[in-house]
Amino acid sequence: MEIVAILRIAMRALARNKMRSALTMLGIIIGVAAVIAMVSVGQGAQAQAQQQIAAMGSNMLFVGSGTISRGGMHMGWGATKTLIYEDEQAIVRECPAVKAAAPGATASAQVVFGNDNWNTRVNGTEPQYFDIRTWAFQEGASFSQADGESVANVAVIGETVRKNLFGATDPLGQTMRINNLPFKVVGVLVTKGTSAAGGDDQDDNIFVPITTLQKKITGQPWLRWIIVSAVSRQGSYIAQQQIASLLRDRHRIRPGSDDDFFVRNLADMADLADQQSRLFTVLLASIASISLIVGGIGIMNIMLVSVTERTREIGIRMAIGATEGDVQQQFLIEAIVLSLIGGGIGIAIGIGVSYLITQTLGWPVLVSTTAIAAAALFSGAVGIFFGFYPARKAARLDPIEALRYE
Amino acid sequence: MATISQPDTHPAQAPATNAIIRVADAHKYYELGETRVHALRGVNVEIHRGEFVAIMGASGSGKSTFMNIVGCLDTLSSGEYFLEEIDVQRFSKKDLASIRNKKIGFVFQGFNLLSRTTALENVELPTLYAHITHAEGQRRAHEALELVGLGERKLHYPSQLSGGQQQRVAIARALVNRPAILLADEPTGNLDSRTSVEIMDVFQNLNLGGLTVVLVTHEPDISQFATRTIEFRDGRIRHDTPVKNRPLASEVLKNLPTLED
Ligand SMILES: Nc1ncnc2c1ncn2[C@@H]1O[C@H](COP(=O)(O)OP(=O)(O)OP(=O)(O)O)[C@@H](O)[C@H]1O
Ligand SMILES: [Mg+2]
Fold first, then answer.
1. Residue A171's pLDDT is what?
2. Nearest to B114 among A313, A399, A400 (CB)
3. CB B181 within 8 A of CB B21
4. In this structure, what are the phi and psi dihedrals at residue A32, rounded to the nearest 5 degrees?
5. Could you give the CA distance from residue A363 to residue A358 in angstroms, rounded to a whole number?
6. What is the structure's pLDDT at A366?
7. Is residue B17 pLDDT above 80, yes or no?
8. pLDDT in tens, B114-139
9. Which of B129, B139, B111 is nearest to B1 (CA)?
10. Does any domain span residue B44?
11. Closest residue of chain B to A315, computed from CA coordinates
12. What confidence score (pLDDT) does residue B12 get?
């Protein structure tokens, strides 16, 4: 039988019950649209994470005090008090793969300006911190090395702090109070958005000289972190090893004992974020494909009903010379046409929804062509898989009984 | 697709008769759980090219069973069936479908047309399975409809046609692939007497054109239009008699009142 004739018969059979065909397709439409939208969202999230990591600074390493789950013991970041200012100095001095480093400690504090107050994080560091993180100023500049030496009450604020504390007022040169101490605002950072790693707002930070933080706010000599930039991307892996062995030396950690610090490479973090978002994508896609399977079951159900309803037609076709193969082919193609049309509509809706979601979240729009191709293929496969049994059932009918069927 | 070719290694080779249908010692059982229905109990018959056979008999005597066997819709439990001297018993389902398509035309009591499909498309249906071009199929469908006198109603749907007209469409469909035999199981069972005679006129004309026709009927009047009547009883043939003085349906129609009167 010619394929054109088969397709014509299939289209006509589907057109006969327009509402039923449309409802049957709905399952496939939703399934395909969901797969495409979910994959697009997942890939958008992935691209977004990569952008954020790139925004953290190039060739960057992060040294923190404490350990991250090693040897059964789990101690969080900053749980040990081991990292000191001299460690940072030694890293710059003794690790050839390190270009620059900045020390850091953090405290949370209540900040007041006029009638407004804001709870935020106050970080102590040195001016090169902003270079390492390639973080620019929208207004003013960083405090100086001299400010650090003189333990000056000067501060650099992030955009979130500016917005919440100063509103319309120009913060530059204004004096705010951190834990009741007056600080002069010398710089306002450009916005950097949410961090890829922790997901917290990087603009909700205040930076002061490390000496000022240690002596006037926390009263403690410990560092919570050291931020390091390596000489090159490749160099960041070498720097990671150099820093680790240097710090083990300096902290007199015997071979076999756990580190009391951790060194994280941004390249690793990028990989990790990549891995996580890929997992996320797969998860979303598999949830969505369940609805595709449900849609397939809908097709099977309707095809079974259709075979029963058209028993007499099948009998007539067999009596005038249709083989089992002809009958099977006819019903199979009907199921495939049903699922492919559903798939086509689903693709269109899926692309639309992808644009809508990514645009709303401000992510890069990535409508995956692979996902579209896969969805098209998959919907065809659903048609074949779930159409096969009803088609087989139709083909196996006995022509005499089928002709007698009322 | 299988063509009807003579199996070359059959022990009981075809005898010298020139029968288009030859059934010998045919038995058909239906197993219904514990009980066995013996529908055909040793049927022997030969039908020759150009004959017009009417099959009569009480309900349940095995007429439809016989027709289904002859029409290759069903197979014998035991016995032999030769169609054009070819042993059909040995064919696969696929080959039987091909025989039904090319060698046999079926007409049913209930017309069995596809609703929501025009007369022309109904008639065209067998050509779709016949491996001929669409154009050729169309041409034959038009021709067959003209032949049964429905040239004016080609695009009508079955619901827009009278019973007699629907049966003509069914006859056209049965003829479209130019079969060797036309089988009709109670084709006039759902029709009034005048329309029945009209249908018999169609059959008689086809038969005069050389087509072999086998039909089942309950009505003795109808059976008289054939050239030979066979009577079934309890799965066997009881009488097999030629028809003497057979009337021409076209003549009978002239003496029947038309609907318009
Ligand atoms: N599929 C079947 N299963 C079981 N028994 C059957 C089947 N088909 C027919 N029979 C039985 O076989 C016998 C012959 O049936 P058949 O249909 O050939 O009769 P018939 O002569 O055509 O009768 P009618 O004039 O009523 O159409 C009957 O007893 C019937 O009950
Ligand atoms: Mg019968």
1. 93
2. A313
3. yes
4. -65, -45
5. 5
6. 73
7. no
8. 988 999 999 999 999 998 888 999 99
9. B129
10. no
11. B112
12. 46
Distance CA A100, CA A44 (A): 33
Q: Which amino acid, residue B56?
A: M
For residue B124, being part of any structural domain is answered with yes
Checking DSSP bridges between strand B181-185 and strand B104-107, what pairing results, if any? Answer: parallel
Whether residue A391 is contained in a domain is answered as yes
Predicted pLDDT of residue A80: 66
Q: In this structure, is residue A97 part of a structural domain?
A: yes
Q: How confident is the model at residue A69 (pLDDT cuts 50, 70, 90)?
A: low
Would you tell me how many other CB atoms lie within 10 Å of the CB of residue B244?
A: 6
Ligand 1 contact via B58 beta carbon (within 6 Å): no
Nearest CB to B93 within list A312, A324, A403: A324
Of B97, B108, B114, Cβ closest to residue A318: B97
User: A223 and A293 share a domain?
Assistant: no
Q: Is residue B208 part of a domain?
A: yes
Q: Is B254 on the interface with A (CB under 8 A)?
A: no
Q: Return the pLDDT at B7.
A: 43
* Whether residue A228 is found in the same domain as residue A309: no
Best B63, B67, B69, B100 member to test A by mutation, with max A CBs in 10 Å, is B100
Residue A141 maps to a domain? yes
- Please state, in angstroms and rounded to a whole number, the distance separating the CA atoms of residues A138 and A136: 7
Which pLDDT tens digit goes with each residue over B201-216?
999 999 999 999 999 9
Q: What was the ipTM of the complex prediction? A: 0.89
Greater confidence (A197 vs A261) lies with A261
User: Apex CA A75: angle with CA A72 and CA A79, to 5°?
Assistant: 155
Range of the domain at B243: 50-78+93-254
Residue A355: which residues within 8 A CB-CB, separation 6 or more? A365, A367
At residue B256, does pLDDT exceed 90? no
Its domain, for residue A221, covers 81-259
Q: How far is the CA of B187 from the centre of ligand 2 (A)?
A: 11
Asked if residue A309 belongs to a domain, the reply is yes
Do both A232 and A341 map to the same domain?
A: no
Q: Is residue B40 part of a domain?
A: no
Of A299, A308, A318, which Cα lies nearest the Cα of A385? A299
Listed in sequence order, the DSSP H helices in A202-265 are: 210-212, 233-250
Residue A70 has a pLDDT of: 47
Note whether A141 and A205 are same-domain residues.
yes
Return the residue matching tokens 């018993």. Answer: B89
What single string gives the DSSP state of each residue in A314-335?
HHHHHHTT--HHHHHHHHHHHH
- Residue B211 identity: L
Cα–ligand 2 centroid distance for B59 (angstroms): 7
- Angstrom distance (rounded) from CA A260 to CA A247: 9
Q: Is the pLDDT of residue A76 over 70?
A: no
- Chain A touched by B158 (CB under 8 Å): no
B188 CB neighbour count, 10 Å cutoff = 26
CA–centroid distance, B70 to ligand 2, in Å, is 14
Average the pLDDT over B196-205 and give the result. Answer: 94
CATH number at residue B152: 3.40.50.300
Lowest mean pLDDT among A345-359, B9-23, B77-91: B9-23
What is the pTM for the complete model shown? 0.72
Total number of domains constituting chain B: 1
Total number of domains constituting chain A: 2
